[in-house]
Amino acid sequence: MANKIYAALEIADQEIRVVVAEEYNSRFNIIKIERYKTIYKIANKIIDEDALSADVKQAVLNCSKAIKAPIQAVILLLPSQKFKRIPAKVSVEINQFVTSDDIKTAFDKAYNVKTDDKLVVIDVMPKEFSIGSNIYDSAPLNKKASVLWCKMNCLAISRDVAYEYARIIEKANLRVMDVILDNLALTTEINILGNARNKNVIIINVEDNFTSLSLLANSSLLSTELISPGLNKLYSALRSEYNIKEEACKKLVMYNSSFENDNVSNDPIYVWDYGDVTHSISLKDLMNTIKVPLESVVEEIKDMCQAIIESNTTEIVLAGSGAEINGIEFVFEDIINVAVSKYTPSTLGARSGDLSAILGSLLVYKDYDRFYDKQDVSVDLDIYQDSLETSRSQEVNVSFTNRLKKILVDSKREVEVNE
Description:
Layout: E1 5-12, E2 15-24, E3 27-37, E4 41-42, E5 45-46, H1 49-67, E6 73-78, E7 84-97, H2 100-111, E8 119-131, E9 134-136, E10 144-158, H3 159-171, E11 175-181, H4 182-190, E12 200-206, E13 211-217, E14 220-227, H5 232-242, H6 246-255, E15 268-274, E16 277-282, H7 283-311, E17 314-319, H8 328-336, E18 339-342, H9 356-372, H10 381-418
Parallel strand pairs: 1-6, 6-11, 12-17, 17-18
Antiparallel strand pairs: 1-2, 2-3, 4-5, 7-10, 8-9, 8-10, 12-13, 13-14, 15-16
């Protein structure tokens, strides 16, 4: 029998990302990753809701065809910029021992905490559990108690934004299994919250058309802000200087640049024709063109973070597409003067910085599912299992046919030799 199959979906910057994964022994095996280009969402702005929904439908359909089973429901990531954190403290009466149902009750109370009418609580992050004078960082299952107190951080966003994204999915004839904020998903994937107990942690997610900054402190996710400069500032400088196509600019920045040291080669790394003339660019040319734009982006980030950095010991984690760039952390360290590290996922088949949040959404969903036990999946398991068995049967038949052909050919050759 197949394990549970989940599909997570992120409507990202000019790209719809779908990750289909099979849960196996509390881990996820990646089955399919779909990246579908769209012009209907740029940075965090939706240009055309109906057209974007059509692109979502096609992206999921591509995945369904690849796995030979229809995807019916998705875990949906929601944008977290300007989310509001609402601290809540709830209590649950316990019948002798703390159970999963008791934890679920605590979550339900937190989800229903009173908020502004314009907001809706999307996620709940438990911060602390207590029984009498005993404090627990995680749910104290099976502990004896009469009352369980829970400190929660309720993460809320604009009700209009949440409903807009839900409509896009519903118009694509899909069901939303759950909604998860992208900053919580990213924090969970990086597994960094524990580092923010006695210091500040800033996760900087660098994408093409924007950069997001998420602040963690006191073991809580406090805020997420967006700034407009992203990697496009580097692409634009390269395109303006050399009149190179945008896709080529992106590949040069992502896969050829290196900020590890200033001693770079002057040998050509890219050659192209323009008119009747052949042009080339060296690594030295590339770095001279993009270093200043990157430094200006980092300077803007420094200005935003300066008060936070001065308030307490601070570390920075780079994530997203920018984390793929070789040596980019050294530019941040030199300018901001704090410890900087990079994060890229280690999941087999999904080792790409821009997949960090969508992979984290799977972990968040499973964490919630420990208490809710929804038994919900994205794919009909019977259909998926049948498609697997059919594929295996076809592989066996093809293999047998190839072996049979080889036997016949070898036999024919032997006859010809004997004659």
